[in-house]
Amino acid sequence: MADLVNLTIDGKAVAVPKGTLIVDAAKTIQNDIPVFCYHPKLKPVGMCRMCLVEIGTPKMDPATRQVVKDDKGVVVIAWQPKLNTACTTPVSEGMAVRTQTTVVSDAREDVLEFLLTSHPLDCPICDKGGECPLQNLTLEHGPGNSRFEYENKQHNAKHVPLGDLIYLDRERCIQCSRCIRFQDDIADDHVLQFHERGRHMEIITLSEPGFDSYFSGNTSDICPVGALTTADFRFKARPWELGSSPSVCNHCAVGCNTTLNTRLDTKTGINEIKRVMPRQNEQVNEIWLCDKGRFVHHYTRAGDRLQKPLIRQNGQLVETTWERALDLVSSKLLGASSVAAVIGDRIANEDAHLLTKLVNSNAKGETRLSPALPASYADLARDYGVGVGFDMKQLGKGDVIVVVNGDVEEQAPVWFLRLRQAVVDRGAKLIVSNHRGTKLHRYAAHIARYEQGMAAQWAAQTDDAALSTEELTKARNVLFVFGDEKLDAVSARGLAQILVGKLVAAGQIGKPNSGLLPLYPHGNTQGVFDIVAGTRHSGNPGVLSVDVAWLVGVGDTSDAPKARFSVVSELFMTALASVADVVLPALSFAEREGTYTSGDRRVQRFYRALPAVGQAKPDWWAVQEVARRMGFVWNFASPAQIFTDLAANVSYYSGLGYEVLAKTESQWPPVGRDDLYYGGTGYENDGGIGVRYASNPSVISAPTLPKMITSMSDLKGPARKLYQTGELIKRSDVMQTHIE
Amino acid sequence: MAEASAISKLMRIPVGFATVLKTLLKKPVTVQYPDEQRPMSARFRGRHHLKRYENGLERCIGCALCAAACPADAIYVEASENTNEQRFSPGERYSKTYEINMLRCIFCGYCEDACPTNAIVLEPIEFPTGYTREGMIYTKQMLLEVPPTGTPATPQVTQPGTFDRPIIPFPAIDSSV
Amino acid sequence: MEKHILLRDLDVPNIRDLAVYSQHEGYAAWKKAVTGMKPDEVITVVKDSGLRGRGGAGFPAGVKWSFIPKDVFPKYVTVNCDESEPGTFKDHHLIRHNPHQVIEGTALCAYAIGANVAYIYCRGEFREPAYELQKAIDDAYAAGLLGKNLFGSNYSLDIYVHLGAGAYICGEESALLESLEGKIGQPRLKPPFPAVSGLYSKPTVINNVETLANVPPIVLNGSAWYKQWGTEKSPGVKLFSVCGHVKNPGNYELPLGKYSIQELLEMAGGSMTGRPIKAVLPAGSSSPIIPASNFHAKLDYEAMAAIGSVLGSCSWIFMDDSVDMVWAARKMIRFFKHESCGKCTPCREGTHWALSVYDKLLSGKGTIEDVNLIGEVNKQIIGKCFCPLGEFATSSMTFTLKHFKQDYVDFIDQKKGGSDVYLKELARDHHLHELHSGVVSVNGIKVH
After folding, report:
1. Which single residue of A222, A407, C45, C215 has CA 20 to 30 Å from A100?
2. Backbone torsions φ then ψ of C281, nearest 5 degrees
3. For residue A734, how many other CB atoms are within 10 A of its CB?
């Protein structure tokens, strides 16, 4: 490794890559230099002065330009006269750092005493108390007492709504600017800024409405004090009282790893999610989470959750027992001439697998993914998707990222953050092609436009030099991010095929960081498709007409089949459920375990965090019970066993299992360690980082060029917005004003 | 030896009677609890009380440090946010739910130690008893003192800016400590 | 001195008018450079002249210019006219009374480094002089001295005047750049230095007004001519803003190294009050105070360093023996507390803390413990700040404690605190503080 730099920290030799900052180099040897303004994910500023250390470099003889050595042959270190910040100084060859001397520990005490002169000492009511870097570092490095007179403390406003999701306590703010820098450097929503100066310096929001950003919740996570709190969690519970379960967000294709913090609520008498925190997975979401993933969880404890099975009697849906409901469903299925199952793309792989297995036992059984549109191209997105070793963090100079017909910030927010960094910070070339403006347009080296619905036609006919085969061949990697906005099934598949064609022509197949990346509508679109695709499935939308239909977690889809008898498994009494013959209460993702497959084919486990609501049961249980009544000898005791069966039947998943998926590896930068220097107790990833299964590129059929779309009624895929109204988001109080 | 021991055994009978006769004339030590009660040490730790400031605001700020300190896990606190229109305690936070399971409580007093506002006090005046397990879970209403005479109960309506902060010494109010 | 080089308005009436300036060799150097000299030649002349930056740090101007990379475009010249140091009024004088010399110097600098745009950043309070300066620039444009294809060459130059919002910190070069870019005035992390990544991340030269005002005569008359004044290491002339307890306050243009502090004091007419001069602040409140015992030192960079002080921006505030150093130090700390940008903790919190202790002393509640605490807090700030201005804030404490510790002891022993004068002053400052911070009081508790 040519670009490793050797230095010593407190006499210990360290070798780290060139450009590493001293504070990170020290972390590699478990030497925690205290910081407040520094955050490994943000650019350093050196404001808080907490990380002051003694730094020395080898003494150079000015005449010979040689390193000076003493009589014992040891390199003489020229120590800098002043302490310097470890968070802004990159390492250099032969550098020596001292972090444990009296000078350094005095400096830490001094800076902490300064910080605490402004800080209110109201830890008992502060939501950060218990996971607060200022608290932790004061205990470790603080002076123990202060000579500052308590009455001279400055009093500022303690209840400042920056937006309706984030509240600011101006007294607690230590002016580290982490939130401002996150918004500027990571989210690129320049909505926060310092106002005034000196002791009056305070955070203000510049946007109208306030704090207008999809990523505002992250600022509360990285805030090193309790200055920024979310409307959702404010004064709800102390961090140490919370239960913590690893989970996976299912609202978009990213599959962000989350930690569900739960606690008993005396009002409902049942455990509920108090907050959703990002769980560190450098391969997926790093340590970020969008506000939808963070604040939409309230539906899990909505008052109108279905609690008991319902069957239709005399035209009315009436409550019944599971026994009767299951008996009815199994008898109908046994007698059915044709059966269809429609599986929503938030349903866990295990449930989808078991239902598919059951439905396909019928000679005329058909399964379908809902929404149906992604099924038209999901096979291409899988087989020509990014490689197993795909890592968005490696995209950079020499790579070409093409975003076609998708609005990444709206449809996969955390991918937006990561793609943006690949382009802005690491120099990847971004080409954006869309029928409307998106936020990614800001960073595009090249922009193409076409009429709404004409993405495939554009891709087929474009003579853009930036997308020519020569250009794409020259690129280190080519990543096609595409969506199905305003496309029908033919166009959507056509677009995917053309993009695959470009990949093949440019010889970019089989590389880890090249391939397709689809902007699926939800968190398990790929997974459900993978399961139904191997069987009789209707990939194309169109109205099916069957004897018995079983709809699982489809919401109010427009492509439900016409059925003489329909079974709906749902969380809520949707319009579709209200016309069903049997309604089965299902468990939400937080009340059960299972796996999801993200848009980049990473299979990830989520865990049970909450007890069930009423008599609601997981879908796989209902399916198995029905199957048993129909004579199948199924004895799946848990999703883990079903997944083993799934892995044995769906070739892509072979070799995977719950143990493999639960494996973790140490994450760099270490924000989830117990030193808690970066705040937050949810970062630690103890639930597994998931496994991406291999793509299977083979020769593709010639692209079928779609016909021109002439009327609006032909348009299919919706223009999905992050906060568009839906069954789940509408049950979250804090999100009400954001729903579009 | 055997003979001597037989005599001494016999001698125990009159000694026993003598004791009974002596005690018959004495006032009994036992009291008819709970109708009668013995005086307790002033520092005896009996049942918990949640205290108020002199203006009727609750001292408890819902920090749950008592629950964290409790070795028996007997305390359950749920916090919520004060507003000037509905103020329970000084500062932003108050306890919406405050429950102590008296069956679990070991009366160690750690909750008192942990309390930053001297809100919870184990007083020697009352002993929790009950017939049901549910009845032994003392709710906030049972634990909270009645407001000092002349002050309104919580929640109160307060002027903006007057009770923004917890714990800060209120000279007029804090004299009760 | 027979003739002024910088304060030419004292010799030539109305030199602020372009016509008058032109009659007195005005823009001759500018024309000579653009029509007859290569940019590198201009740099060489300035480098040879040994002209040092007059803003305070004293870095050789020509060397600074030569750091600018040749192959990166665009480049910028930024003129630092954020003269905010208490007691300094030399730049103000120059842009008001001799603006064309500043403009010409700026233009020469821009030509030398190959910049086509120059900004003159004036502090917010300089509204009126900035308008005067703008008028002079407009005249220069009208006369074809600025603008496109100057003197028939293919070199073009635009000069803009920018008014800041009145912040001491914007005199720090990187904070000035931030402010010029429209951001909040806070210093930047260095490296990269402005010569590499300055204004809009492009190579930028930042020079003080006075530095650039020296350039036209240097380019016109050559470096040897300029070196006839001053010392080997500090050549040339320098403006001395003299104020305080002197009879004739004002700007004095003197060769470096020729006179001593005592002579400067005599030139300014000596003590105004007749009382003996006790000490002088050589470069405003940011500089180490010099007690009268050191007034023998010569006025150049090296001699000042030898007596443990600095030449800095040369704003000489003379104080007679009626000045209580505790009061003076508090005054200075109040200034720094008010002007702290708030970026780094020690300066933001330390100045506030120190002021609160000084206020305690003035209010009469202080003890000798508090005097020690000032020293402690001061030590806590030193060496930990983000930018030099944070360190500047400490010198008033460090050096009044060093040279005038007796004043502090007397202040406590003789119970000077709590006098009507001091209490009135505290009340007024407190009122001003509330006005500035928008703090209002509700029911006796301050809310924002």
Report:
1. A222
2. -95, 115
3. 17
* CATH class of the domain at B47-143: alpha beta
Domain ranges for chain A? 4-100, 378-519
CATH tag for C8-227 (out of 3.40.50.880, 3.30.70.260, 3.40.50.11540, 3.40.50.80): 3.40.50.11540
Fold of C237-320: Ubiquitin-like (UB roll) (3.10.20)
Beta bridge partners of A54: A98
Give me the CATH topology for the region A378-519: Dimethylsulfoxide Reductase; domain 2 (3.40.228)
CB contact under 8 A, B162 and C447: no
B162–chain A Cβ distance below 8 A for any pair:
no
Contact list in C for residue A47 (CB cut-off 8 A) is 343-345, 386
Look-up of token digits 């690893």: A246
HSE-CB for C388 with a 13 A CA cutoff: 12
Establish if B162 touches chain C: CB-CB under 8 angstroms.
Answer: yes
Q: Which residues of A touch C (CB under 8 A)?
A: 44-50, 52, 82-83, 88, 107, 110-111, 113-115, 117-118, 147-149, 152, 154-157, 170, 174-175, 193-201
Give the closest residue to A96 by CA, choosing from A14, A27, A163, A176: A14
Nearest chain B Cα distance for residue C199, angstroms: 44
Interface contact B164, partner C, CB < 8 A: yes
In chain C, where are the structural domains located?
8-227, 237-320, 325-447
Indicate the range of A190-194, A505-509, B167-171 predicted with least confidence: B167-171
CATH 3.10.20.740 for the A4-100 domain, yes or no: yes
The pair phi, psi for residue C327, each rounded to 5°, is: -65, -45
Label residues C244-270 b or e (16+ Cβ within 10 Å = b): bbbeebebbbbbbbebbbeebbeebeb
Q: What does the domain layout of chain B look like in residue ranges?
A: 47-143
Contact C442 B164 (CB under 8 A): no
- ipTM of the complex in this document: 0.93
Q: Is A236 in CB contact (< 8 Å) with chain B?
A: yes
Question: Quick check: A257 and A682 in contact, CB under 8 A?
Answer: no
SS3 content of chain C, % helix, strand, coil (to 5): 50, 15, 35
Can you tell me the distance from the alpha carbon of C51 to that of C42, in angstroms, rounded to the nearest whole number? Answer: 13
From CA A351, how far away is CA A527, in angstroms rounded? 11
From B161's Cα to the closest Cα of chain C, the distance in A is: 6
Count chain A–chain B contacts defined by CB atoms under 8 A: 53
Interchain contact C170–A (C-beta under 8 A) = no
Each residue's pLDDT expressed in tens, for chain C with a length of 448 residues: 568 999 999 999 999 999 999 999 999 999 999 999 999 999 999 999 999 999 888 899 999 999 999 999 999 999 999 999 999 999 999 999 999 999 999 999 999 999 999 999 999 999 999 999 999 999 999 999 999 999 999 999 999 999 999 899 999 999 999 999 999 999 999 889 999 999 999 999 999 999 999 999 999 999 999 999 999 888 999 999 999 999 999 999 999 999 999 999 999 999 999 999 999 999 999 999 999 999 999 999 999 999 999 988 899 999 999 999 999 999 999 999 999 999 999 999 999 999 999 999 999 999 999 999 999 999 999 999 999 999 999 999 999 999 999 999 999 999 999 999 999 999 888 877 666 555 444 334 443 3
Scanning every residue of chain B, which has its alpha carbon at the shortest distance from the alpha carbon of C442?
B161
Per-residue pLDDT band at A695 (split at 50, 70, 90): confident
Q: Which of B68, B92, B99 shows the shortest C-beta gap to A125?
A: B92
C435 touches chain B (CB under 8 A): no
How crowded is residue C94: how many other Cβ atoms within 10 Å of its Cβ?
Answer: 28
Do A518 and A720 contact (CB within 8 A), yes or no? no
